[in-house]
Amino acid sequence: MEIEFVEPKNIEKRSFEIITQELKEEHNIVLDEDKAFMILRAIHTSADFSYAESLYFSPDIIEIAKKAFVDGATIVTDTTMAMSGINKRALAELGINYHCFISDEDVAKEAKERGITRSSVSMEKAAECNHPLILVVGNAPTALIKIRELYDEKKIDPQLVIAVPVGFVNVVPAKELIVESGMPCIVNRGRKGGSNVAAALINALLYKLKYERKE
């Protein structure tokens, strides 16, 4: 196997070319043009080609998501890991606020007293925010369950839900609760996902919006 020389600035571009080629030649998959930029970034982050088929996009979600950013929606993540992976420079350039409440003292205290996860309480705290929300969940299915509960109670109405937690306990049904709700969402069905994938999907949207603004 030969080493391919690629200039540092072109490594990501070359990676996307390889992914696109392998999807077509080895998996017989040609991605929808409007969603390819998100699917490619998920695969690029995980080296897992199954995302080409397992990512669910609710109707018109790309335009809905971009509008949410333009309208000043605030990002709330379920973990600091997901937040750390989101490109802060892109957020700053686009004027987008972001929060992760998981380490807040009041959240930790209430979660312990009630015997529930901090991620669940974090979503309750997010529901108290007086601005549009983009909820990004890459680790905790309990956050998704709480989002659905709050939505059914008309206490939260997110502009977008990124639902890609990884794991085994309640992960699959929690994701399906989001799909079935009718909320604008991007969901990776099945057990796979993770905070890195959640961050990658948000970054894909940020980069797309930045690119379109420059055109």
Folded structure, characterized:
The chain is α/β, with parallel strands linked by helices. Helices cover 56% and strands 10% of the residues. Strand 5, helix 10 and strand 6 form a beta-alpha-beta unit. The termini are far apart. The model has no long low-confidence stretch (mean pLDDT 94).
> If you average the pLDDT, what whole number results?
94
Number of domains: 1
Low-confidence regions = none
Please identify which CATH superfamily we are dealing with: Cobalamin biosynthesis CobH/CbiC, precorrin-8X methylmutase
Sum up the structure in keywords.
single chain, alpha/beta, Rossmann fold, six-stranded mixed beta sheet, 56% helix
Secondary-structure map:
Blueprint: H1 11-27, H2 33-46, H3 51-54, E1 55-57, H4 61-70, E2 74-77, H5 80-85, H6 88-94, E3 98-99, H7 105-114, H8 118-127, E4 133-137, H9 141-152, E5 160-163, H10 171-181, E6 185-188, H11 195-214
Parallel strand pairs: 2-3, 2-4, 4-5, 5-6
Antiparallel strand pairs: 1-6
Helix pairs in contact: 1-2, 2-11, 6-11, 7-8, 8-9, 9-10
Give a summary of the structure in a few sentences.
With 215 residues, the chain is an alpha/beta fold. Helices cover 56% and strands 10% of the residues.
